[in-house]
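On clarity, I found the account of how folds are encoded harder to follow than it need be. For illustration, here is how one protein appears when written out as sequence plus structure tokens.
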Amino acid sequence: MTPEIIYPIAKFIAEKILKQPSKIITADEALISSGLIDSFSLMDLALFIEDTFSVRIEDTELNAETFDNLNQLASLIQSRK
């Protein structure tokens, strides 16, 4: 979708959540349903997104339907801009 949204999120997940800076996360790779990130990491990711992109994430959106891949996250962020 949009690299200017997807790349920083993928980098944050790889470096800060997974502690694997060289890991490549594809735009359609499952994050929650695959177990790549857990509920604690999900909160960190939501805060990062809010701070980085100046958008508000509702608590009810912290689930696999909204946050399961980078494309979904980019769509959510774009819809808030």
The radius of gyration is 11 Å. Residues 6 and 70 are 6 Å apart (CA to CA). The helical segments are 3-17, 39-53, 64-67, 70-80.
